[in-house]
Every structure is written in C-alpha cells, then in structure tokens.
From TrEMBL:
Protein species of origin: Homalodisca liturata
Domain of life: Eukaryota
Top-level taxonomy: Eukaryota, Metazoa, Ecdysozoa, Arthropoda, Hexapoda
Annotated protein name in UniProt: Protein TsetseEP domain-containing protein
Length: 202
C-alpha cells in the first residue's frame, strides 16, 4: 500500500522525487520482510513438520495394513495455510500505523521543501539576471533540508520502526499459528505413533 503522496509525479526537483520514493521503499520494507517470513512459515512451522514426518512414515509403510487412513491428512497443509492467513489478518496494526504516520510526516516535509524549491525558482528566474545571491543561498539551504529527511539518524529511526513492526507482527503470527494448529499437531503425532507402533509389530 502506498503512503500518501509518495508516488506523486509532480515533484519540481529530482531530489524531492527520489526522497519520496526512498520513503515509500522504507515503508514497503515491512511488507517485504513479512511476506518472506510468511512464505517461509508455510513450510517451516511445527504443524508442517509434524505433517511431513507423518507423510514420510505413511509412505514407508504404505503397502502394509498399518495405513488405514491415508486420506485423513490430505488437506492438512491447506488447513495450516488457512490458519496462517487468518493469523496474518489478525496482526495488530498499531506499530504499522505509527510507522505510516512517521513516513507521511516526512513525505509532507518533502512536499513542502519541494514547493519552496518551486517558489524559489519562480522568484529567481523572474528577476533580472544575474539572480541575487540569496537565490543560491536559499537553494543550498533547501538542498540541505531535503538531505536531512533521509539523514543517517532519520534512516536509523526508520530502520528501528521497520524492525519493531516486523518483529512484533512475527511474534503475533507465531503465537496465533501455534494456538491454531495445536489440535492438528496432536492428531498428527498420535497418528504417527500409531503408525510407528504398528510398524514395529509387523
């Protein structure tokens, strides 16, 4: 999702457009990291691990009388992914909204500075040449102001919010998935023990 004003194409200066795009990219980083985490979670959660163990054991004894419910867990992975999707939707949005406000504030500053660039250009190019020295001084100050928006300390602040937002979302999803799949894990572990017990008697 775009933060307000980030994709406007009417920026007067390239520096302003670059800054707005960089701010949007910082905000998008949260979704990128969470997307990677969710893709990984679909195959690396406890329920999927239990399902994999069960399937491997069931496959190893598939021709024996031990396997009587081969279809029982056929849709288990779909169930797991459905739980994950529900948990993702349930993530509290306070951290992300706080970060969005911070980015919006910086984008608004960028637009204000860009408007000042535009006004300075209008004033300075409408006067007789050469332009007064104040024009260059104003431009220099505005360039410093736009640089400050993505200064090291500001970027550090953004990175902190990215980390906090991402980690809190991960913790929320992990706890929710663990709770949402615990019954399935118990069923899988029970079925696995039953298979192993049958296999040892065969």
């Amino acid at each position: 999702p775009e933060v307000e004003g980030a994709a406007d194409l009417d920026y007067f200066r390239a520096e302003s457009r670059w800054t707005a795009n960089a701010l949007q990219a910082m905000f998008d980083e949260v979704d990128t990291r969470l997307g990677d985490f969710i893709d990984e979670l679909k195959v690396s959660n406890n329920a999927s691990s239990a399902l994999k163990k069960y399937n491997e054991t069931a496959e190893a004894v598939k021709d024996s009388p031990c396997v009587t419910t081969s279809e029982e867990f056929r849709t288990a992975q779909d169930t797991i992914e459905s739980v994950i999707a529900t948990c993702v939707d349930a993530v509290p949005q306070e951290d992300k909204n706080k970060f969005r406000s911070l980015i919006n504030e910086s984008i608004n500053k960028t637009r204000e500075i860009d408007n000042s660039f535009r006004q300075n250009s209008i004033v300075c190019t409408s006067l007789r040449l050469p332009p007064p020295s104040s024009c260059k001084a104003t431009e220099k100050k505005l360039l410093a102001d736009i640089d400050e928006i993505m200064s090291c300390s500001e970027v550090d602040t953004f990175n902190y919010h990215i980390a906090v937002t991402t980690e809190n979302a991960k913790d929320s999803i992990n706890a929710c998935v663990e709770n949402g799949t615990k019954d399935l894990i118990i069923k899988l572990e029970t079925a696995l023990k039953s298979l192993e017990s049958c296999q040892s008697r065969s």
